[in-house]
Amino acid sequence: MYRLSFFLLLGLAACGASQQPASQPIAFAYHAAEAPLLVAKAVEIDTVFEQTLLVAGASPMGEIEMVSAADDTKVFEERAAPLAAARGATHYRLAATSVENVMEESGVFGAAHEESRTRARFVLYRVDRDVWPKLPSPLQPGISASY
Q: What is the pairing mode between strands 43-44 and 26-32?
């Protein structure tokens, strides 16, 4: 099971690696459709505003899943906004986080040791540009992408 977790993590890293410094590596994988860019950074929402978005006509686009050795979900949230926007989403919401322990080996002859990994899953939404002015101000995307 530990090897499976290691290969899953390795597979996620192959899907896309972040631009984080070496001290905060994050692997991510998209499970979402791709659409033309509308914003440079997507707007983070919470469950209170999710229904407001859906009533306004938001389309759920899928999810981003991230894995990191960091135990701080704030690291994920900083990366989620541009990653969601790169997929064409205008909004995103943290749906779940979990911590898993995996066995890692230090080199070929190194002893195995247990490492903790934090996993976060974000749900992506897209709201058409003509609806933005009708949204409450905290939900209105700010900076438009020039694409």
A: unpaired
